[in-house]
TrEMBL record:
InterPro entries membership: GLE1 (IPR012476), GLE1-like_sf (IPR038506)
Protein name as it appears in the record: mRNA export factor GLE1
Keyword field contains Transport: yes
Location within or outside the cell: Nucleus, Nuclear pore complex
One Pfam family from the record: GLE1
Gene Ontology BP, a term: protein transport
Protein family membership: Belongs to the GLE1 family.
Coiled coil stretches, renumbered: none
Primary localization: nucleus
Keywords: mRNA transport, Nuclear pore complex, Nucleus, Protein transport, Translocation, Transport
Signal peptide: none
Length: 590
């Protein structure tokens, strides 16, 4: 009996078959050959020895069911025949029937395998066709993409080449233009140099002729009068300085008491000032009042808006700095504004005076450079517009009584409260309250510094209508009439800081005597009357003892490209000078 072991056994007569889903025809043929060999070997002595299985040479079943190269080989179909069953088969004599049955089944299997082979072959053929079609499509797509890439690359390279050519053309054109410009500049420079050389040669020749002529004339005059003129000038200068100082002191000392008694009788002789100073103040205030009254009539009868003009003046004054170019440009601009026919000159003059005082009284006292520069601007503007100086001095007197100079004494009979006295000497109200003493003293210091910078300004070709002579007279009136206190101490120290250097250069020993008088009389009286004025006393003493009047104040010398030296010897030391050119513009000269 033949037993085929399968997972789900099925019996056919005496044969049990176990189909394996992963078998192939080669495995089946191998098993059949093994089975045939066993049957042949077991039946050699029997009369019923079966014939071995004979393969048909016309059929090649080894190729049936062959899979792709990468498919793993399946397990073989297993057929086992037990010896006991074989013996029983021999005994029953059924070998021939079993073999016939097997042949029939093998034929059926062969038929099925052929069908499967044809089906597999057709499937493989279809797969190969699909692969070929897909390859052709991929090849076409690759060619299409390569063509697109080649076209894009060609366009890109063409654009790059075109851009490069364009850039090259631009560079070449730029090089040609630059070369042409350089050549033109070179020719122009050569022409200018030639003109300058010729002009310089001509000027040198004229200068030599002029110098020779002038030298001859000067030589004749110098031989006769040089020594006598020098001695006479020195002697006359010394005598004039001494006479000015003595006359000022005598006039102030002999008339101060009488003048004070004549002024302000209704207030109990509270005003301390020289008569001449009060008359000058009254005259300036009267001129300023008449100017304001005239301006009010002009403004009320005109529809013009003068606010932009006032802003322009204010902005120009604020832009003044301690440089030559700045002073020149701002002075010329202010003169143009004051002479502008669009705005009446009297209105512009009042605006200018008011803005100068308004700006500098709110400025920090540490503004020496701007004060000296503003002094130059004021002197030049007042030389072109004469009404400016009187209006500006009137504004000075209104803002600070010590520019007169004068001082009001406190009296309970004359002033109901201390606040009314403070207002009388110049204190202002801030948010309904009287300003602090420190704020008032800072304002006095700022205005006195500006006043001192103005009186010491010396400008070549332009007359300072309120120059060093007025400063010397102010100092004499101040020391002869005003009492020493913290207010007058601040005013005196600020004035000396700005004008002391110029006063000493002009009055020399007379100025030294004034400083000695301050040390001997003013300072001790101040210390006795106001023990809290120690800082003011220290500043005055330091100025005198350290001889600061021998040093140029900070900002006294304007800075600029034409300034060759920051300091010069005493004999040649001069302040930067300006003069008014015929074209009405401010120009610089040393």
């Amino acid at each position: 009996m033949i037993n085929l072991e399968v997972r789900c056994p099925k019996n056919v007569t005496v044969i049990s078959i176990d189909p394996n889903p992963s078998w192939n025809f080669n495995n089946l043929m191998s098993e059949l050959s093994s089975l045939e060999s066993k049957l042949y070997n077991n039946g050699t002595d029997s009369s019923l020895n079966p014939k071995p299985f004979i393969k048909s040479p016309a059929r090649d079943f080894r190729k049936i069911g062959r899979r792709e190269n990468n498919v793993e080989k399946s397990k073989a179909f297993v057929m086992r025949i037990d010896d006991v069953e074989m013996n029983e088969f021999d005994d029953d004599g059924t070998e021939a029937g079993s073999l016939e049955e097997i042949r029939n089944q093998l034929a059926a299997l062969e038929t099925q395998l052929v069908a499967e082979k044809e089906k597999s072959t057709s499937a493989l053929v279809q797969v190969e066709k699909n692969i070929d079609v897909r390859r052709q499509m991929d090849r076409k797509l690759d060619l299409h993409y390569q063509r697109k890439i080649a076209e894009a690359l060609d366009d890109h390279l063409t654009a790059i080449q075109r851009d490069h050519e364009h850039r090259s053309q631009l560079e070449e054109r730029k090089i040609r233009d630059d070369a042409a410009v350089e050549e033109a500049k070179r020719k122009e420079k050569a022409l200018q140099e030639e003109k300058l050389r010729q002009q310089k040669a001509k000027e040198d020749q004229e200068a030599r002729l002029e110098a020779a002529k002038r030298a001859e004339e000067e030589r004749k005059a110098a031989q006769e009068a040089e020594k006598l003129a020098k001695e006479a000038a020195d002697k006359l200068k010394e005598e004039n300085s001494r006479k000015d100082y003595v006359n000022a002191q005598k006039a102030a000392s002999t008339t101060s008491a009488a003048n004070v008694s004549k002024e302000m009788k209704s207030s109990g002789n509270l005003v301390r000032a020289a008569v001449n100073a009060l008359k000058l103040e009254e005259r300036r205030l009267q001129i300023y009042k008449e100017l304001n009254d005239r301006n009010q009539l002009i403004i009320s009868g005109s529809h013009a808006n003068f606010v932009p003009k006032e802003r322009d003046i204010k902005r120009t004054i604020r832009q003044i700095t301690g440089t030559i170019d700045n002073v020149r440009s701002k002075a010329n601009k202010l003169v143009e504004i004051l002479n502008d026919p669009v705005c009446p000159q009297s209105v512009a003059v009042a605006m200018f005076a008011k803005e100068v005082i308004s700006i500098f009284e709110t400025t920090s006292p540490k503004f020496n450079s701007s004060a000296f520069a503003c002094g130059h601007v004021i002197v030049y503007v007042s030389s072109q517009v004469p009404a400016v100086m009187d209006c500006l001095l009137a504004e000075f007197h209104k803002a600070c009584i010590y520019t007169v100079p004068k001082h009001k004494m406190y009296s309970k009979a004359a002033f109901e409260t201390e606040e009314s006295y403070y207002k009388a000497i110049g204190y202002r109200e801030e948010n309904g309250k009287t300003e602090t003493t420190d704020s008032y003293l800072d304002r006095i210091e700022s205005l006195m510094k500006l006043y001192g910078a103005l009186v010491q300004t010396v400008t070549q070709g332009v007359q300072n209508k309120h120059g060093l002579e007025e400063g010397w007279a102010w100092l004499a009136r101040f020391l002869n009439v005003l009492p020493p206190n913290r207010y007058t101490a601040v005013a005196l120290e600020a004035f000396l800081e700005m004008a002391g250097f110029a006063l000493h250069r002009k009055y020399k020993s007379q100025f030294i005597k004034v400083l000695n008088s301050i040390s001997r009389e003013f300072v001790p009286k101040l210390r006795a009357r106001d023990p809290n004025a120690g800082s003011k006393i220290s500043r005055i003493q330091e100025y005198i003892e350290s001889q600061k009047f021998l040093q140029e104040p900070t900002g006294w010398r304007l800075q600029g490209a034409l300034l060759l030296h920051t300091s010069v010897p005493e004999a040649d030391r001069r302040q930067e000078q300006y003069h008014h050119a015929p074209n009405r513009h401010f120009t610089y000269h040393r």
